[in-house]
């Protein structure tokens, strides 16, 4: 389950000003150079019907980050008018919160109903803790795999939530989203243009939908967190490509992880791959440390950034990029959870919890 950050357009510590050029592109107002004056030329044997004019040729020095932002804006304009759109998402009826037997241990935040602050403590389980962490992550992976088999036309996300809830309870675990900051359900179900944190309701899935199911379980004092985007019925090839590239971005982000590696490498690798296919990376939602605490530092930015910090052997955290076909701007419904793309374009997300090792990383949320 992603956590939310509120960021300016740039994470870099340097301050950039943007100026709009005549054709709608954006360039940084950094240092520029002015070329020599150029005079309009006469054609041989022809007289100009207008007086000669001088003008200057100017150019801007553009950094790689600025150029990437410019390209992304252009791609947003190009793609939003081309892709197929499903009918706009409408909220259905949200059923009452499901019950959890008293004997199942709850995370500390459940009783308060208050959204916890992100812990500054890195999650580094000891040997015994790591055994418990792996068990929680394996359960989350099995639950997610089962939830994916339920994705069919006419099935409601409420029904998926109930099935996920029951499977987690039967395993003696607690569904981590339930009661987290008042979240009313046991799983997040984000359909089509919903970027993140969709609340299960009475809406029936339609052929052509894509749906991200985000499962987190709390077992024996540890959280396991994972998600995947599934296809419902006959799905548009463009949507399938978006999901495939999102999964590849996750893989590439994981591939750079090892003891001593910079966290910012994750965002760089994900952004490079997404841009290669014309997709955009959402900045608002980030990965996070996970273990006994649901959300902690480090925050994992999935886009290019200059944030400091290095990975440490034994550390556990999530990587969970969200990619969009169109804009990455978003709107949030009055429930304060469901977050949609501002232009109605589809979004896809996938997530793993990983463990940092000396030479690489281990994906914990695999069956």
Automatic annotation (TrEMBL):
<feature type="binding site">
    <location>
        <position position="214"/>
    </location>
    <ligand>
        <name>a divalent metal cation 1</name>
    </ligand>
</feature>
<keyword id="KW-0479">Metal-binding</keyword>
<feature type="binding site">
    <location>
        <position position="351"/>
    </location>
    <ligand>
        <name>a divalent metal cation 1</name>
    </ligand>
</feature>
<keyword id="KW-0809">Transit peptide</keyword>
<feature type="binding site">
    <location>
        <position position="225"/>
    </location>
    <ligand>
        <name>a divalent metal cation 1</name>
    </ligand>
</feature>
<feature type="binding site">
    <location>
        <position position="288"/>
    </location>
    <ligand>
        <name>a divalent metal cation 2</name>
    </ligand>
</feature>
<feature type="binding site">
    <location>
        <position position="351"/>
    </location>
    <ligand>
        <name>a divalent metal cation 2</name>
    </ligand>
</feature>
<dbReference type="GO" id="GO:0046872">
    <property type="term" value="F:metal ion binding"/>
</dbReference>
<protein>
    <recommendedName>
        <fullName>Methionine aminopeptidase</fullName>
        <ecNumber>3.4.11.18</ecNumber>
    </recommendedName>
</protein>
<keyword id="KW-0645">Protease</keyword>
<dbReference type="InterPro" id="IPR000994">
    <property type="entry name" value="Pept_M24"/>
</dbReference>
<keyword id="KW-0378">Hydrolase</keyword>
<dbReference type="InterPro" id="IPR001714">
    <property type="entry name" value="Pept_M24_MAP"/>
</dbReference>
<dbReference type="InterPro" id="IPR036005">
    <property type="entry name" value="Creatinase/aminopeptidase-like"/>
</dbReference>
<dbReference type="InterPro" id="IPR002467">
    <property type="entry name" value="Pept_M24A_MAP1"/>
</dbReference>
<feature type="binding site">
    <location>
        <position position="197"/>
    </location>
    <ligand>
        <name>substrate</name>
    </ligand>
</feature>
<dbReference type="GO" id="GO:0006508">
    <property type="term" value="P:proteolysis"/>
</dbReference>
<dbReference type="GO" id="GO:0070006">
    <property type="term" value="F:metalloaminopeptidase activity"/>
</dbReference>
<dbReference type="GO" id="GO:0004239">
    <property type="term" value="F:initiator methionyl aminopeptidase activity"/>
</dbReference>
<feature type="binding site">
    <location>
        <position position="295"/>
    </location>
    <ligand>
        <name>substrate</name>
    </ligand>
</feature>
<dbReference type="GO" id="GO:0009507">
    <property type="term" value="C:chloroplast"/>
</dbReference>
<feature type="binding site">
    <location>
        <position position="225"/>
    </location>
    <ligand>
        <name>a divalent metal cation 2</name>
    </ligand>
</feature>
<feature type="domain" description="Peptidase M24">
    <location>
        <begin position="132"/>
        <end position="358"/>
    </location>
</feature>
<keyword id="KW-0031">Aminopeptidase</keyword>
<dbReference type="GO" id="GO:0003729">
    <property type="term" value="F:mRNA binding"/>
</dbReference>
<feature type="binding site">
    <location>
        <position position="320"/>
    </location>
    <ligand>
        <name>a divalent metal cation 2</name>
    </ligand>
</feature>
<comment type="similarity">
    <text>Belongs to the peptidase M24A family. Methionine aminopeptidase type 1 subfamily.</text>
</comment>
<comment type="function">
    <text>Cotranslationally removes the N-terminal methionine from nascent proteins. The N-terminal methionine is often cleaved when the second residue in the primary sequence is small and uncharged (Met-Ala-, Cys, Gly, Pro, Ser, Thr, or Val).</text>
</comment>
<dbReference type="Pfam" id="PF00557">
    <property type="entry name" value="Peptidase_M24"/>
</dbReference>
């Amino acid at each position: 389950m992603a956590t939310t950050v509120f960021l300016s357009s740039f994470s870099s510590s340097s301050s950039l000003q943007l100026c709009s050029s005549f054709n709608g592109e954006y360039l940084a107002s950094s240092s520029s150079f002015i070329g020599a004056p150029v005079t309009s030329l006469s054609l041989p044997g022809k007289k100009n019907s207008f007086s000669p004019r001088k003008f200057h040729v100017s150019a801007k020095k553009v950094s790689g980050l600025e150029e990437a932002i410019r390209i992304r804006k252009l791609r947003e304009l190009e793609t939003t008018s081309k892709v197929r759109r499903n009918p706009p998402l409408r909220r259905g009826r949200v059923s009452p919160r499901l019950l959890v037997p008293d004997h199942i241990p709850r995370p500390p935040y459940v009783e308060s109903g208050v959204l916890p602050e992100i812990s500054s403590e890195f999650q580094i389980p000891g040997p015994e803790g790591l055994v418990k962490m792996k068990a929680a992550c394996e359960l989350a992976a099995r639950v997610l795999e089962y939830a994916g088999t339920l994705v069919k036309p006419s099935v409601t996300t409420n029904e998926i939530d109930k099935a996920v809830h029951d499977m987690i309870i039967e395993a003696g675990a607690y569904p981590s989203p339930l009661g987290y900051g008042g979240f009313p359900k046991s799983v997040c179900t984000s359909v089509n243009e919903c970027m993140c944190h969709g609340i299960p309701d009475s809406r029936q899935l339609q052929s052509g939908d894509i749906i991200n199911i985000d499962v987190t379980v709390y077992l024996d004092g540890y959280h396991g967190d994972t998600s995947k985007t599934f296809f419902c019925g006959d799905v548009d090839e463009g949507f399938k490509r978006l999901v495939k590239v999102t999964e590849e971005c996750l893989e590439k982000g994981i591939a750079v992880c090892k003891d001593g590696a910079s966290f910012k490498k994750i965002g760089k690798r994900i952004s490079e791959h997404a841009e290669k296919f014309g997709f955009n990376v959402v900045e608002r939602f980030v990965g996070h440390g996970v273990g006994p605490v649901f959300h902690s530092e480090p925050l994992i930015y999935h886009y290019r950034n200059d944030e400091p910090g290095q990975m440490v052997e034994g550390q556990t955290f999530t990587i969970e990029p969200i990619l969009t076909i169109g804009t990455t701007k978003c709107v949030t419904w009055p429930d304060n959870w469901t977050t949609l793309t501002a232009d109605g374009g589809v979004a896809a997300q996938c997530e793993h919890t990983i463990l940092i090792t000396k030479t690489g990383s281990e994906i914990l949320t695999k069956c």
